[in-house]
Amino acid sequence: MSATLASGLDPARAVDPARYAMRGDAPRAALRPATREELSEALRWASREALGVVPWGGGTWLAQTPAPARYDVALDLGALDRIVEYEPEDLTVTAECGVTIATLRATLAARGQELPLEGADAIRATLGGLLAANASGARRRQLGAPRDRILGARFALGDGTLARTGGKVVKNVAGYAMHRLACGSRGGLAIFVEASFKLLPAPAARIALIYDATREQLLDNARWAAFPRLEPAALTVVCGERASRLPGGSGEIKVVVGFEEDAARVAEQTALTIGKLGEPALRLESTSATELWQALADHESSGEQHLTFATAANTSTALAPLFEFSARAQCVFHVPAGRLHVFTAAVEPRGLISALAPRGFALIDSSPDVELHQEVFHFVAISDLRERLRSQLDPGRRFSLGERRVLGS
User: Fold this and answer.
1) In this structure, are residues 66 and 368 in contact, taking their beta carbons and an 8 Å threshold?
2) How many CB atoms lie within 10 A of CB 40?
3) In 142-229, at which residue ranges do the beta strands (DSSP E only) sit?
4) What letters, b where the CB count within 10 A reaches 16 and e where it falls short, cover 153-167?
5) CA quadruple 239, 338, 374, 367: dihedral positive or negative?
6) Does residue 195 sit in helix, strand or coil?
7) Which residue in 22, 121, 257, 373 could disulfide with 60, CB within 3.0 to 4.6 Å?
8) What's the rounded Cα separation, in Å, for the pair 114 and 199?
9) DSSP code of 126?
């Protein structure tokens, strides 16, 4: 019996499972529900049959991820792509979570507004996938991550229950903040169906300065000590082969400094930066600067094996222990946010963790194909909390992505 007949869905909702392979492993069935009610019905069927479910958006992360042990059904959320309610005067938007980031951006830009969420491959990446990853890029310190901007959401639980928390306005007290807890759960707690956000007006001026740099310059505190007070929207260091993919210069290390505010303030910040660092290799403004923020997000989430660390340090001199550990290390470091992404092709993960931990870097995430022992993670307490939440929200354990693969200690 086909999955659509067994689940009670229209046979047209069945799609080719091969399109949803995770590292070459395809599910037994794939469904593309057209409404939230159909999504609920599909989950109720999976619950009755004790099937492992993986929700799909654009597949930008999942296609590179090893399949979980239980991968029976792929649920494609791409048909749930409506912008449900947009109130430009209130600076709020509500959209179904199958909408792509690029589509949502274009809709808001037409009214001079933006939702400053950044994730890799915005043309394919969906709103739900970005929320599930709690993805953010170079501007995280100034503008926040998805869990900071989300006002409320509708989501589907493992047994098919449709629930809602929060609301559509900035001030609301509707229920527990489950919509924030689910951000970053990577599809392991619930499926985002619809979400509401607070927006921002597009800044009057936006500029990005790109510099070639040496390791010695990055570690010169006198060059960088003033930058926290300048409050840049972005200050990102890119090391290794990724630096050559960015425009401007040809060095193996590039520094991107960006500002977004009123024109007078941006002009002041830019002049102070040039006074400290000299003339940049390249200066980008307006849309070109926005495209650079996207390029940085693409480099941060390239699908290659990587480790992500957090640090309280907010100058480039924090990279000293990384350079001491490996002269060939490839990284993307969003300095104001203290987020360091190190790609592990040229380094040994456990050795890297041991080198950075005593210098104030906490390991907070890794790509799913990096095998690590439990004791190296600094978020064990958070993982335990998430497990308790999962026991309440998905007691039947339908969402297979909640089963993180970590080696025994």
Assistant:
1) yes
2) 19
3) 150-156, 162-166, 191-198, 200-201, 205-212
4) bbbbbbbbebebbbb
5) negative
6) strand
7) 121
8) 6
9) B
The DSSP code sequence of 303-334 is SS-EEEEE-S--SGGGGHHHHHH-TT-EEEEE
pLDDT per residue of the chain (409 residues) written in tens, 0 to 9: 466 656 677 888 999 999 999 989 999 999 999 999 999 999 999 999 999 999 999 988 888 788 888 999 999 999 999 999 999 999 999 999 999 999 999 999 999 999 988 888 999 999 999 999 898 889 999 989 999 999 999 999 999 999 999 887 766 555 567 888 888 888 888 999 999 999 999 999 999 999 999 999 999 999 999 999 999 999 999 999 889 889 987 889 999 999 999 999 999 999 999 999 999 999 999 999 999 999 999 888 766 788 999 999 989 999 999 999 998 889 999 999 999 999 988 788 888 999 999 999 998 887 766 766 555 555 555 667 767 888 888 888 899 886 654 433 3
DSSP conformational letter for 403: S
**Strand 150-156 relative to strand 191-198, pairing:** antiparallel
